[in-house]
Amino acid sequence: MVQWDSVEQLEQYQLHQRNDLPKLGTDSKLLAQFATLHRREKVLDLGCGVGVLGVLLAQRQKELTLDGIDIVPESAELAAYNLTANGLTGTIRQGDLNHCRQWAPRPGGYDLVISNPPYFAPNTGKTAEGARKTACTVEGLCVAAGWLLHPGGRFALCYRAERLATLFSALEGNGIAPKRLQLVQHSPAHPPKIVLVEGVRMGRPGLKVLPTLFVNQFNPQWRKEIPHETAL
To answer: Are residues 10 and 99 in contact, defined by beta-carbon separation less than 8 angstroms?
Structure first.
């Protein structure tokens, strides 16, 4: 039987969460609003946790296919429950994203790959604690995204600002051109901690830097004021 400790109401959806697993946070909210999204797209969340991003994306756009994969069995089980309980379409897999060519033998099956990954190197910092211990690396994420996206498909993720160079190198090394970037700061007095990045598989060079987002001023309506430009 699926177990949860709390339920958060997200508009018409309910997100079931557990205290011992990663929960809904500001970074997931920001990423879900940042990613370019169209109706009827096929989306895959790499390291989906309990399915937070899938539920948030469903608030923005209807008729999505919301797949996910997570290496933690309890996370994958609860993510699958969150999809079913909310009447959403998709498949959650328990497994290792680094083995994407085994569970997705044909490349290019997705319009959007999205991820809110651990920000630190494996087995260090918070990633060494309990269920957050993982073999996930930014290089592994980009390898998987490069395989899973069709040409013109998008990869959106949030990451630590000081590791931006590493992220760009991994994206470009796997045929994903960085196209949109937005720095996230707590306030104008604080340096950016997080960066939101969206790349396009086999996209042409050309990066659009969006206005800095200040978390203390965050409102989901902000995205309506910033056009999503992902021209190839």
So the answer is: no
Token output for 50: 């309990």
Q: Which one, of 175, 149, 146, lies nearest residue 67 by Cα?
A: 149
Q: Are 66 and 46 in contact (CB under 8 A)?
A: no
pLDDT at 222 over 50: no
Question: What does the pLDDT average to over 12-33?
Answer: 96
> What's the CA gap between 101 and 115, in Å, rounded?
18
pLDDT in tens, 195-207: 999 999 999 999 9
Amino acid at 142: C
Q: Are the CB atoms for 54 and 68 separated by under 8 Å?
A: yes
pLDDT of residue 73: 97
User: Distance (Å, rounded) from C-alpha 192 to C-alpha 31?
Assistant: 15
How many other CB atoms are found less than 10 A from the CB of residue 181? 18
Cα 184 from chain centre: 16
Angle at CA of residue 231, ends 225 and 232, nearest 5°:
155
Full-model pTM: 0.89
